[in-house]
């Protein structure tokens, strides 16, 4: 409820615009209590929270794939459910943005994100313990040695470990429950998408409405770069959780025979989601106490607080009552507003550019850790850690620096377009250098090389067995790799023809391996150890690849903020929130939603060996053809970014044509603005730029 206004306040009351564009009084302005600064801090933390949970979910994609034994394309559908949630409410929220209580809508969104994170954790408490795929071995009479190769054996051989035997017998078919529990993760991701929808368009438009025009880009860049600390910590948390066993605290870790580099390893993916849910809940709290609107920044700087006759707390700002939302009128104006936006060629090209950028970025974020793991033999935990401590901080620096340069040099829209175009072209050149980071294909007997190890096999000529293991009765649907002394990986110790072993758990070593002996090694050297063989060339190429990624991420982020500000400066002020929503909608519908699905489907085509579920059927991929994986993954990214380069050039040409009348740069306007900095209103009237709120004459430039 508004308190009565004193006579002194009415004489010196401040003015600011409500959603309808009319002037409305604000009672007082306290320089010590800037609610715009509070909103900036709250919005930055909400950006942090959504980035924190979003990046954590991205980092756990491979762990979710292995835990639920699903393909990469299904993981892409789960990832795309977030975009579906956004689409359900994005247009409505962004269009009605100036007409609703924006801070409270953002608060509700943060709460919904929290619920979605907690819902995604449910499968961990509904499923049993994770039993990874492994072979069974038989015990000889001395009970001191076990054999993977059992000549003439039929059916499941005996095992020396009661736990392993009970796993085989009692695993049973849990198809009716566990096979579909990934739907909880999908629905939780859907809710996160719904909750995140209002944060960006409403938050950014709120800042742009109530801040100085010259500060708007800096504030938005500051909020977005501050929010990037969320993804950084999200990836660090993901790295930590990926290094923990999924059933941490319940299972004896020493009894596990695989390590985090193994493709069957599943980290504690559920643990971080509990933290993400709590962070999103905390992010919602400040917005409940922020007002519907604020005084325009700098509008009341000349007022003397001492001249105001105020009753009660002088630092109390009481904005006018919130105007009633006329829903029928808002719906009536929807189509004209949409036609006005898409009648602007600059905005149309910007939308197409956004779509292609979304496709490449979403594909990279979703499958980058898988690519590093398969291509460079890096554990998922290490790949996530490197992204969190190197790539994301560099991205934050680039975004912050981009916003700072706009403010420092007061870049006009033409200068921002040139700057963004040049930085992206440089990033594309660096991106092409990714193809030079070649790595040898993992040598897997029967998959990529024959058992003789002489020449590579074609993908259509897989020979799983050979004379050296023909009598071992090996099961083709098993994957428990061992590395022979000859440097070749075998799908299981059985396929290596190993007849004895020593040690237990991770330290087990297999001996008398007939297939390894076939490589010219003596009996004393025909052994194999658990795990895939290491590739030396991959380890050497990885630092080079990481350096190229860092340079590319910095250049893309440096031009990101100027590119984003082009949208604000090329549309009518009353359509800014709507423009942000349409931009996000287009990016998510045509980029964020399909990209992880078709990226995942094409990556699945490069799989050489699929895992097997306990009930039968293929599970997640165990090993890929790394050369084909590299060509598909990097080729898609390069193709999408090549299209972005063309659109950047077209966008720059359109902007230069519109805002350089008679082919002359608007330097005289810019110099006039600098020379008359004491008269900002006059300078603004002379500078015809979209996004300025000076006069009705600018309306013609938006069409």
Automatic annotation (TrEMBL):
- The biased composition feature labelled Basic and acidic residues covers 664-688
Q: What is its main location?
A: membrane
Provide the Major facilitator superfamily (MFS) profile domain boundaries: 39-660
> Which InterPro entries has this protein been placed in?
Kazal_dom (IPR002350), Kazal_dom_sf (IPR036058), MFS_dom (IPR020846), MFS_trans_sf (IPR036259), OATP (IPR004156)
Q: Which GO terms describe its cellular component?
A: basolateral plasma membrane
Annotated segments matching region Disordered:
1-23, 664-703
**Record GO biological process:** monoatomic ion transport; sodium-independent organic anion transport
Q: Where in the cell is it found?
A: Cell membrane
Q: Which residues form the Kazal-like domain?
A: 462-517
Topology in the lipid bilayer is annotated as: Multi-pass membrane protein
Record keywords, A-Z: Cell membrane, Disulfide bond, Ion transport, Membrane, Transmembrane, Transmembrane helix, Transport
Q: Which residues cross the membrane?
A: 36-53, 74-93, 105-126, 228-246, 266-290, 346-367, 379-405, 417-435, 542-566, 632-656
Signal peptide position in this chain?
Answer: none
Q: Which GO terms describe its molecular function?
A: bile acid transmembrane transporter activity; sodium-independent organic anion transmembrane transporter activity
Q: Which domain of life is it from?
A: Eukaryota
NCBIfam families the record matches: oat
Similarity comment: Belongs to the organo anion transporter (TC 2.A.60) family.
Q: Tell me the protein's name.
A: Solute carrier organic anion transporter family member
